[in-house]
């Protein structure tokens, strides 16, 4: 199993990138959103990967974080969702958007992805809702795939030393910390995840304390 690729970008296609690892090129399929964030040719890149094995083909799929890779794995477990559909969902929503949509049971958000119909979107939400808290919690401790030092060590001493692109900022850690705090207070993981997702949707820039306060207001008894 190939779990991670670190090397230099050779070229980017419409749905994939070719990563040169010490002279060996690995073709890695990515979502539109991930491809747009990758550095240019010759620059260092690192991606977590998932290997799809079929009778007639081997395909690598790349993700900048373990959280996104885990959502890809879970999405692929849903009947009717293949690798292309999974990348479409992740490309449209991002891993945090997927977490929020599934925690809230918002199948309309999932349906917004290209090629995803209402029945498939509902199936995704229904089958994965109980798993959303676990994946959201991963965001607080899972590292990003980028490892500039390791990538640059692979380059010849005479080669130009590119500056690897920084990973895009993520609010996943704040959501994971808020989720952990709420579960420590005794709230069930499912309801805590839904409240944190709703709070994050209302204020995408909220830090952990603000998310906890907003989620507690949402969880407070009504009336």
TrEMBL record:
Molecular function GO labels: ATP binding; four-way junction DNA binding; four-way junction helicase activity
Region (Domain I): 1-64
Ranges annotated as spanning the membrane: none
Keywords linked to the UniProt accession: ATP-binding, Cytoplasm, DNA damage, DNA recombination, DNA repair, DNA-binding, Helicase, Hydrolase, Nucleotide-binding
UniProt-annotated location(s): Cytoplasm
Biased composition, class Pro residues, residue ranges: 159-170
GO BP terms in the entry: DNA recombination; DNA repair
Segments forming domain Helix-hairpin-helix DNA-binding motif class: 73-92, 108-127
Primary location class: cytoplasm
Biological role: The RuvA-RuvB-RuvC complex processes Holliday junction (HJ) DNA during genetic recombination and DNA repair, while the RuvA-RuvB complex plays an important role in the rescue of blocked DNA replication forks via replication fork reversal (RFR). RuvA specifically binds to HJ cruciform DNA, conferring on it an open structure. The RuvB hexamer acts as an ATP-dependent pump, pulling dsDNA into and through the RuvAB complex. HJ branch migration allows RuvC to scan DNA until it finds its consensus sequence, where it cleaves and resolves the cruciform DNA.
Quaternary structure and interacting proteins, as annotated: Homotetramer. Forms an RuvA(8)-RuvB(12)-Holliday junction (HJ) complex. HJ DNA is sandwiched between 2 RuvA tetramers; dsDNA enters through RuvA and exits via RuvB. An RuvB hexamer assembles on each DNA strand where it exits the tetramer. Each RuvB hexamer is contacted by two RuvA subunits (via domain III) on 2 adjacent RuvB subunits; this complex drives branch migration. In the full resolvosome a probable DNA-RuvA(4)-RuvB(12)-RuvC(2) complex forms which resolves the HJ.
Comment text on domains: Has three domains with a flexible linker between the domains II and III and assumes an 'L' shape. Domain III is highly mobile and contacts RuvB.
Protein name per Swiss-Prot or TrEMBL: Holliday junction branch migration complex subunit RuvA
UniProt source species: Pseudooceanicola nanhaiensis
